[in-house]
Amino acid sequence: MISAVETGESLAGVDVALLPGRAAFLPATQTLVCSDLHLGKAATFRRAGLPVPEGSAQQDLSRLASLVIDHAAKQLVIVGDLFHARAGCTPRVLEEFLAFREKIRKECQTKVVLVLGNHERSLGRQFSPTDLGIDACLTELSQPPFRFIHEPDVHEPVLSLLPTPAPATMPTAQQQSTAAGLTIAGHLHPTISLKSPSGDRLTERCFVATETC
After folding, report:
1. What pLDDT does residue 125 have?
2. CA-to-CA distance for 163 and 182, rounded, in angstroms?
3. Please, are residues 25 and 36 in contact by the beta-carbon 8 Å criterion?
4. How many CB atoms lie under 10 A from the CB of residue 194?
5. Average pLDDT, the chain
6. How do the domains of the chain map onto residue ranges?
C-alpha cells in the first residue's frame, strides 16, 4: 500500500497523495479521486471509421481498480466525464464498467460517486447511474473540507492538481482552494512539456498547483 507520507502534499492545509496512476488519494476520508476517463472514446472513434484499437476502457478500469485496492479506498469520486459519448456506450464498455464496479465492491466495499460532467449531460436517458450501481451528483459533491466539481470556477482562487505521458485525453485533477477547504475538479486535461538542452521534447500529464486557472 502506498502511503500519503511517501507521496503526499499539503494543499490548503489538507493532506493529498498525488499518484502516478492518474489519481489523487485523500487519506482523511480514504477517498480516491480521478476524472475524465472518457470510457468508450475509442469505440466512438471506431464507429466514425477511425482505426483506433480496442481495449483502452478495460486498461483504464484495470488501472483504477488497482489503485482502489492498493489504497483500500472506501470511496471513489469521479469528477466528471466517466463516459465519452452515446456512440461509445456499447454493451462491451458497459459490461467492463459493471465488472470493475463489482470487483472494487467485493474487495473494498468501495462506494462510487460521479459528479456529472459535460459529457454525461450529453448522454441523456442513455445514462443511468442506478443501472451502473453508482451515485451521481448533478453539479457538485460537498464533503467538508472537500468540494468536488467537474469544471473549475476561473473567477476564484485556485489550487490545481494533475498526474503523468500525455495524450489530450489525459485525466487530471484540479484543485481549487476555498474558505471551506479544498475544491477538486477535472475537465482541463493539463499537461507539461519538458525540453532538453539538445531540443528533445517530452509531454507528460501532471498535477498543477496555481492560484488561478
Report:
1. 65
2. 18
3. no
4. 10
5. 75
6. 4-205
Closest to 1 (Cα-Cα) out of 102, 101, 103, 73: 73
Contacts of 188 (CB under 8 A, 6+ apart): 152, 160, 172, 174, 213
Note the pTM of the prediction, 2 decimals. Answer: 0.76
Sheet holding 111-115, edge to edge: 8-11, 14-19, 23-26, 31-34, 75-78, 111-115, 135-137
How far apart, in whole angstroms, are the C-alpha atoms of residue 60 and residue 100?
10
pLDDT-flagged residues of the chain (< 50): 1-6, 155-180, 212-213
- One DSSP character per residue, 154-200 reads TTS-----------TT----EEEEETTEEEEE--S--EEEEE-TTS-
Q: Which CATH number fits domain 4-205: 1.10.8, 2.30.30, 3.90.930, 3.60.21?
A: 3.60.21
Residue 30 sits at the vertex; the CA angle it makes with 29 and 31, to the nearest 5 degrees, is: 90
pLDDT (0 to 100) of residue 119:
60
12's grid cell: 490548503
Closest alpha carbon to 24 in 198, 110, 135, 148? 148
- What's the pLDDT at 175? 43
- pLDDT at residue number 65: 96
